[in-house]
Design goal:
This protein is α/β, with parallel strands linked by helices. It contains 15 helices and 12 strands. Helix 5 packs parallel to helix 9 and helix 11 crosses helix 12. The longest helix has 23 residues. The chain is globular.
Length: 398
């Protein structure tokens, strides 16, 4: 089997000649390449050459958001929308949109009949040195209740255009080492979008009670835009998709998730499943109390799952809860890769418990959640790879 086939086996619960391991190495590589601190044997290597030499999978779950052909792709970032070469649709807004860039800060102004909405994002040299591939939102779109009408106007005017040719670009880049994964949206529902992208969390909960009617109109406008995005992506030449992520059982508590995220997620999942497609979600956060909601959402894979000791739930607990209904892509907390956080003895003990907890390995893809940190001990990365390869074949679901 090649690695692409092993990843598909992990996604679907199929049999595999070995347990797939597919960590995100992009931030680790970017930082160490830029700072001249790659392992000596790889000082002149590309990321893909390192992946080939390690004989692991190429992780395509998160786009490189700074890989842009057009600098204006940054324009909508602080509005909560991403544009880069790894996203297979483009967004424009039918209005006067003005941008300027200075000193790493990107400012966008949306001129609407209801006023001007201003956003700012930041990407500086220090972020590049740290390997970061996503800009920071330094000014969110929503400032006060006077912004509702303007924001509704913006989202109502969204135009979504397919960029399916970029699927082939990703497929070529990942070769037989990876599976092209289609980014739908960073959030799982319109209400989640408002909470995560447009407002601070404290402000959001005040708005839920103080301006419920206006908030509902805004989520309706966002829902219309997301419907356009989903319709384009549903017909893309893809088998695997990613929607929503970075949930936290405090910010998106179970009742909130049940009311405002699960129904939208379930509807999207069923439409994808009708076309024989696979849906993953980026479950990197505190998942205690949310596992049942993931089941109700009907997702196929909980991607970037970060367990205890960084969160409250162990891999074993999550695995037992999901059974064969939802797969896991992740399972290794990033802090375990840092000698300053955990000793070699603690790391070895964690690996022993981890491999014992995943049963026969079906419906599992090993990864370091959320990503391999730039300061990771490379010997620990190699040890994890050896343990995965020593695990043996995966029988797959009966």
């Amino acid at each position: 089997m090649n690695y692409k086939e092993r990843i598909f086996a992990g996604l679907t619960g199929g049999a595999s000649d070995e347990l797939p391991i597919c960590p995100r190495l992009d931030l680790w590589y970017n930082a160490n390449k830029r700072n001249g601190t790659l392992p000596r044997e790889y000082k002149d290597a590309t990321l893909f050459q390192i992946i080939e030499d390690l004989d692991i999978g190429y992780n395509t779950t998160i786009p490189n958001f700074m890989d842009k052909e057009n600098p204006l792709d940054e324009a909508y970032r602080a509005l909560g929308l991403f544009q880069c070469n790894d996203i297979f649709y483009s967004l424009t807004f039918d209005m006067d949109v003005r941008t300027r860039s200075e000193g790493g800060e990107f400012t966008t102004e949306y001129h609407t009949p209801h006023g001007i909405i201003t956003t700012r994002s930041l990407y500086n040299e220090k972020m590049a040195q740290d390997g970061i591939t996503i800009s920071h939102v330094s000014e969110k779109a929503f400032k006060s209740s006077s912004d509702y009408d303007a924001l509704c106007y913006i989202f109502d005017s969204a135009v979504v255009t397919p960029r399916y040719e970029r699927v082939a670009r990703m497929a070529e880049a990942s070769g037989e080492r990876g599976v092209p994964i289609g980014w739908i949206t960073s959030t799982a529902s319109p209400m989640h979008y408002v909470q995560k992208q447009l407002m601070g969390f404290e402000q959001f909960f005040f708005e839920m009670f103080d301006h419920e009617e206006e908030l509902n109109k805004l989520t309706a406008a966002i829902g219309g835009m997301e419907d356009k995005i989903f319709d384009v992506m549903l017909n893309a030449p893809l088998d695997v998709y990613r929607m929503g992520g970075n949930y936290d059982s405090m910010m998106q508590n179970p009742p909130f998730f049940k009311d405002y995220i699960t129904p939208n997620f379930k509807e999207r999942a069923r439409k994808l499943h009708e076309k024989g497609k696979i849906l993953t979600s980026h479950t990197d956060g505190e998942n205690e109390g949310l596992l049942g909601e993931y089941m109700d959402c009907e997702i196929d894979m909980a991607e970037s799952l970060c367990p205890a000791p960084m969160t409250n739930l162990s891999v074993r607990e999550v695995r037992e809860f999901f059974g064969d209904k939802i797969g896991i892509w992740g399972g290794i907390p990033s802090l375990m890769m840092l000698p300053g956080s955990y000793s070699e003895k603690e790391y070895d003990a964690y690996l022993g418990e981890f491999f014992d907890s995943i049963g026969d390995g079906s419906h599992f893809i090993i990864s370091i959640a959320d990503t391999v940190p730039p300061d990771a001990d490379f010997d620990r990365i190699k040890k994890l790879i050896r343990r995965a390869k020593d695990f043996g074949p995966v029988p797959g679901k009966k």
